[in-house]
Give the backbone structure.
Amino acid sequence: MELHARDMVNWFELANEKIKQNKSYLTSLDQPIGDGDHGINMARGYQEAVNRLLAKEYSEPSEVLKDASMALLSKVGGASGPLYGTAFLKMAMAVKGKDYLDLESLSVGVKAALDGLKQRGKSETGEKTMIDVWSPVATYFSNPSSFHSNGLVETARTAMEKTKDTMATKGRASYFKEKSIGHIDPGSASSCYIFEALAEVIGEKE
Amino acid sequence: MKKIINDPNQVVQDMVDGLVAAFPETLKQVPDTFVVARADSAVTGKVALVSGGGSGHEPAHAGYIGKGMLDAAVCGEVFTSPTPDQVFEAIKAVDSGEGVFLVIKNYTGDVLNFEMAAELAEAEGIKVANVIVNDDVAVEDSSFTTGRRGIAGTVFVHKIAGAKAEVGGTLDEVKGVAEKVVANVRSMGMALTPCTVPAAGEPSFTLAENEMEIGMGIHGEPGINRGSIASADEIADTLMGKILEDYDFSGEVAVLVNGLGSTPEMELYILNKKVQDILADRGIKVYKTFVGEYMTSLEMAGCSVSLLKLDDELKELLNAESLAPAFRM
C-alpha cells in the first residue's frame, strides 16, 4: 500500500465532499453544546484547502499536508482552525522527505498529529474533543499487520459515537458540564469523516 | 432578521471600512486583512498592544485603538476568533522592536489562534508576550475545564496595560501590570433578549417575554440560571453578590456598568445607582465609574457589571491619557 501525493490530494477531496454533504448535520451537533458554526467553518476551510491543492503539482505527500494545513489554519477559524492546522502540519513534518506513505509512515504521521492536538489543545483523551477520535485511530494505525480500511472506519465511528456519553471538560462545550452528555462532539464527527475519507483512499489500494 | 447591513457575509469587511473612514487621522487598515491599527504604527520605542477576537462586541476591540491603549485589533468573523495569519499580520504591523503584547479573552478559539500567531512571530524573531483575561464569575473557576470567560473587564486590561506601554514600560512590565489587572477584576452579566449573528439569520437561543438569564456569556453561552424578570435593584444585588463573594474588594475600586447592545443608557444608570449603594454599604470606595457600551453582544439586551480593585499604580495608569475613540481620558 503506497499513498502518493495525488492520493493525499484525493484524501482531502473526499473529506471535503463528506463535510460538504454533512455541513448542516455538523452545525446541528454544534448548536446544543457549542456556537453552531462547525459545519459552516469546516466546509469553508476544506473547500479552500482543496482549491489550493488542485491548483498545484505535488511530488511529496508532506507538501500536500503542509499546504492543506495552512489553508485550514487561515480559513476555518474558531478553535477547529488551529487544531486541524496543527494536526496536518505535525503530520507533514513527521513524514517530510518521503516519496510515498505506507502504513508505517502513516502511523508515524497520525501519531505526530495526535501529539500536536494534545499539545495545542492542552487536552487529553476523554474530554469530549476530537482527540477522542484521533487517539484510538492512532492506536489502530500502530499495528500495520492487522490494519484494514474497514477497521479504520469502524474505529473512528465507534470513537465518535462514544463521545456522546462523555462529559465535556475542554472547549466551549465544557460550560454545559453534565448537560453536554447525550450529544456527539462536533469535532469528533468531522474527524470521523476525515478518517472515513482516508479509509476510502487506502481501500482502493488494498 | 432586521439589520442595517448589505450582505450578511460581508459585515466584518464593511464595518472595518466604515470604522477606518470614521477616524482616518488615527486609524488605518492593514491592507488585505481585517486588522485595524494606529495610523502612526509601528510606534518607535514602545511595546505594542494587540487584541481582538470575534466581531460583534463593538466598540471592542478596534474602538480601543489609540495613543494610551491598543496599537492594533484583529477583527474576526462575527463571534468567531480571528485566524493566526491575521493575528500575525497585526503583530508584524505594530512591532517596533520592543516587543508585542497580546490581550486574549479566555475562549478556546481565541487562545489557540493567538498562541499560534505568537509562535509564528517568535519564529521571525519578534518578542511576544500575552495575558489571558478571565473575569466572568458566572463560570466555575477550575483548572479541569476551559475556565472563566473573558468579558467586559478586558477593557480595563486594554486601558491599564496600554498606559504602561505608553510611558515606556518594557514587555515584562506591561505583562506584569496586565496580570495584576486580571487578578483584580471580576465581572458578571445578564441577558433579557438574544441576538442574531448575521450569517445565521436567526437568534441562537430564545428567552420568553418575561424571562431573563443571569450569568449569560457575550456570545449567548449559558449562565447560572434562567428565571422571571426581576427589578434593576434585584439584578444589581444578584450580580454584585456573586462578584463580591468571589474576591475581596475592600479598599478602592473602578466600576464598569456595561450595556450589551440594545439596553438604553437610562437602564444602565438605574442599575448603577444600586451598584453604588451596595459598594457604599460595604465601605468600598469608588474611585471611578464608567457607564455605557464597552463590550457588546450585537443587539442583545442586558448588561454586565465589572469591578476592578485599585492600588496607586493601577489608579495612575487608569487615569492616564487615552485617545482611543471608545475610551477617551
User: Anything to note?
Assistant: Residues 193 and 301 of chain B are 5 Å apart (CA to CA).
